[in-house]
Design goal:
Elements lengths: L2 H13 L5 E5 L5 E3 H15 L9 H10 L4 H4 L9 H22 L2 H12 L3 H20 L13 H6 L2 H5 L5 H22 L12
Antiparallel strand pairs: 1-2
Helix pairs in contact: 2-3, 2-7, 3-6, 3-7, 6-7, 7-10
């Protein structure tokens, strides 16, 4: 195959990321796509750069943000509340096959290394990008048009996770991320009280 054919095949795959929906909802009420999720992470990285304490290569961060969920263009996104151990195992297999397909088309060791870097989560860049991945979901909890979109999956799985101490502590890796999460948490809690008459404390009672 020619390089042009390989690249065109890849472009057809990457376009699908713009069509792949996530559970999270946006401010207009529509489902967020995986591509818009990745774009939001890039915007976060740009805005956060002056505040980061741990040095990172921003070009690497941008590439990881853009590539981290690309396999879902083939393997599809699966909401967390549906990820049983069996589903997770199959998801991993599907995503590895997808990465293989993408690597075979691009024949670019640099891109292949980026996929490995994100999976291993050892570099400061990959650790930051994973936190941005999580933080974007928090932003969508805040920005969503209707806060009922999360529903009560698995006994309020998402709200219990969002308000938990363990979840908050994951952002301690970078102080600015913890500060942003705290601000988002306060605003989400205020929306829950105002719009749904729900006190977030009901989601944290098991931690007391």
């Amino acid at each position: 195959m020619t390089a042009a054919k390989h690249l065109t095949d890849f472009f057809e795959i990457s376009e699908r990321l713009e069509c792949e929906p996530r559970l999270t909802r946006m401010s207009d009420g529509n489902a967020q796509t995986v591509a818009s999720h990745s774009w939001n992470m890039i915007m976060m990285a740009i805005a956060l750069k002056p505040y980061l304490k741990i040095p990172v290569n921003m070009e690497t961060v941008m590439e990881l943000c853009a590539l981290h969920d690309l396999p879902e263009a083939i393997a599809h996104d699966i909401p967390l509340h549906m990820q049983t151990d069996e589903v997770k195992a199959q998801k991993s297999v599907n995503e590895q096959h997808a990465i293989g397909t993408i690597n075979n088309l691009l024949q670019d060791e640099h891109i292949a290394n980026r996929f490995n870097e994100y999976e291993l989560r050892q570099s400061p860049e990959s650790k930051l990008v994973k936190l941005l991945d999580i933080l974007d979901t928090c932003v969508q909890h805040l920005c969503c048009k209707d806060m009922e979109y999360i529903g009560t999956f698995n006994n309020n799985f998402y709200w219990r996770a969002f308000f938990s101490k363990s979840f908050a502590s994951t952002f301690d890796y970078e102080p600015i991320l913890r500060s942003v999460y705290n601000e988002i948490r306060e605003r989400v809690a205020a929306r829950l009280r105002k719009e749904l008459n729900i006190d977030y404390a009901i989601f944290t009672k098991d931690e007391e």
